[in-house]
Structures are given as structure tokens and as C-alpha cells.
């Protein structure tokens, strides 16, 4: 690897990739106007280097860089990527807030894998509609990765999965777990779901509706055998899935809830569905 | 109910119960040195009024109070509780930050129900050890309430369940779902778990350990019948349960995880266990 370059001037343009991180998702100078992919902390930075996203710069406090680069695997992954050492006050001024973790990396976005290609090898996918909360999307990635979901597919109204906060909450799993947005061939996005059905997926909506089937029954056929391929649909907190999306699925499934309580958080509901899916396959 | 009193002076002592809310958990002037119970927003404020905690004051922007009190049930619940109307700038100065929800209530703490009394009618309880994160505790309450868990019991090293952030994240379920701390009769808290066993509970530890039993198998007996009474033990993120606590249980249970991923968030793991428990009882 190259050497570590010490930077003391917060205005140094070599730090531009980690400048104003609170507003980093809006970068009209980059293709698509979206920001770079930002990873924070040694675990997630390591996952960024191991990912398909080409890293442009590694930035950190001297001690944090030293400890990160002391791992031979990390040193090899960093290779010729520029490495900039900055002190805490300088980084705070550049990033726009006190970045106490003291280690971050910025990478370029890459073209998404098409949905069709993802479906070739997937057996369990989750489809998101109207999930606008970054923390929920991050948790969905973490839970999906942890329980063997093959991919996340994005319908209408979802927040950007590569936003900085999503990367952090997902613990970097958004950098490893395949995801894709539907192509937008149709006027109503729900018709895109036909692509899943054509690929042999059983489509299951998650809903708090008490008249829906028990989740455990929805993931198996009439003989109690698990469906070979399952696509679980989840909607945003509050409105849930649109009626249009639910109508496009084969069955509506519910997690039984105690009376007079609130529906579960979307990432929690999804985690339960992922668990039930793995349970049905054991 | 009494009238709504307009207050314009941020120094007015009648607003002391909602002063400096970022530091409100430390109140040396109150019994035990802990803060009042603070509820924010109409849903949680309504649940506070319906709870066992005696409300001392309702405070809000004039329009928020009006809309809250327009509900006859809320008006009846408020009764003779003092109601103070303040504008946004005044409330921000009193609370110490911009409280955009514009409606909050403060109540007194009450004595906890003893563990023994809670166990008399409970069939499913969750026991927490070392869960220090307020958001996790709040989510645990929300998930427990949603999936019919009867009570939360606190072992060593947990954060205060009545902290403001817990109340908010739990959506007020901490005000409705029974909880208690173990009495501290023994030097090591894990011996308190004997009280659960004496009451007929099967004790189940949740652990990511791959050699543990599948969760689904841990909640039923050898014949596949659900145990009558189950106590689920969960530990804090990172360290998990202590070995001492796990040794005091009847069985260790795991949620199967994909290789090379991170363990689930504690509230998410618990939600899956609550789901499996209800599933075993259906």
C-alpha cells in the first residue's frame, strides 16, 4: 500500500469526499446527483473494502488508521487507496460534526444488478414498498443478511439504501447483500411483481389485518411443504402496504398481535417472517 | 376538568416538572433521585393518563391541548390535573430543546409490583440482564406488549425502564405492561431466578451459540407440547447473557443465523422468541 498522508488544512480538496456528511446524499456534481457510499468505523469500513464498491479514500485519526492497518487483511484490501490522517478537530470541521469513531471511507456507487439477474439464484427475497425511514431500511438489511434472505427488492416510495445512515445501521450488510430497484416499466409499480411470479416466486404480503392467514400457514402449501421460492412484501410504518400491492400477491399473512397494541416495527415484522421462512425450510 | 392555564414566563415554577428534560432522569429532589415519568405526544400521553402513574401536569401548545382535550375520553381522564398552555419558544426554553410534538405530561413514579405477585398470573415473561440501551428496552416493551408477553423482569445491569426515551420508544407500553426488578436478596442476582423455577417456569436463555437448541425445540417438551410457563432470558448487545445466567436456566436456545453475519439486535431476537412462544401455544 501507499503511505499515510497527513492533512492539517480542513479546506484541503483531498478531503472533499468526506465533506459535509450531514448533506452528503445530495451531490449534484456526481452521476445521478446522489452521494458517495460512506462507511464509518472499522467493521463497516472493512466491509466496504471487501465490497463491489470502489473505495476512493480512507480517512481517520492517526491512531484509528494505525490500528485498522495493523490487520494484514485490511492492509491488503486498502492497497493503493489514498489514506489520509487527520486530527479530531480537523475531521469535525470537514465532516460537519464530531465524528468520534475517527475512521471512515468513501466509495463510488456502482450500477445495480438487474432484478432478473438477482432472481436467477434467489429463493427468498423481500420486497419493500413505501419504506422511507433510513433506520428501518438499515435494520431490514441487517436482519435479512442474518437470516439468509438472498436479496432486497425496492418498489415505490423507499429511501435510498446507500444513504450513510442506512450503511451504518445495517452494519455494512447493505454493501454485501444484493439489492435492486424494479425497472419502472409499468405505470403502477405493482405490475413489476409479475416478474417475481414468472420466476416461480410465491408472493406473500405482511399485514396486521386480523383476517389474514397466520404467517406460519402462509409460507407452506396445503400439504405443509414450504414453497420453493418466497417473496415477502412489507410496507412502511403507518400506512403499511398499498391495497394495490397486496392484491398483486398470492396471500396475505399476519403475525398474531395482542388486542389493543400497536403493530410491530417493519424491520421487526420482517425479521419474524425471515425466521419463519428459515424455520419452514429446516 | 379545571381550566387551561396560560403560562408565558419560562421561569414559572409550575413548569418545573418538564424542565431540562435532557437531564430529567437525575432528580435528587425526588424520592430515589430518579425523574418523573414523562410522556410525549397524544398517544403516549393518553396512555399515561390511563396508567397507574398519577399525572401531575399536562403541558402543551394551545392547539395541541385543544385537539387532545376535544376527545371526551381524554377530557375525563385529565379530570382535575393542572393543564398548562405554553407557546413553542417557551416550551423549548423550559424543556431545553425544541419539543415539536407540543404535548407532554409528567407523572409520579409508583412502587413496583413485587416479582412474586406478577408471577401469580403470568405464563410468559422475559428476563433482561445487562440491557443498558434505552432504545432496546423501549422496543422490548413494545414487542412484548404486541405479542402477549405478560411481564418484563429486570436482572442486573439494565437501564431504567421509566426513562423518558424508553417511554417514547415503547409507545407507552412501559406504562401498561407489568415489570419488576428482582429483589436483590442474593449476592449474585442469578440466584433470584430460582423464584421463577419455584413458580413453575421453564427457563430459556437466548444465545447466538450455534451449539444451542433451535428456538422452536426449546419452547416445547420432548413430546412437542408447549411448556405451560416460559421465562425467556435475554442479554445486552455485545456481551449477551452472562455464563452465570445461562447456567441458571433449563436450556439454551438459538435463532439460526447465516454464516459470517452479526447477531440480531436484542429486541429483534426477543420479538422472534415471543412470536415462537405464541406460535407454540396456538
From TrEMBL, chains A, B:
Q: Could you say which EC number(s) this protein's record lists?
A: 2.1.1.230
The tRNA/rRNA methyltransferase SpoU type domain is annotated at 124-275
Pfam families in the cross-refs? SpoU_methylase (PF00588)
Provide the GO MF annotations for this entry.
23S rRNA (adenosine(1067)-2'-O)-methyltransferase activity; RNA binding
Q: Which UniProt keywords apply?
A: Methyltransferase, Transferase
- Protein name per UniProt: 23S rRNA (Adenosine(1067)-2'-O)-methyltransferase
Give the originating organism: Corynebacterium occultum
Which gene name does the record give?
tsnR
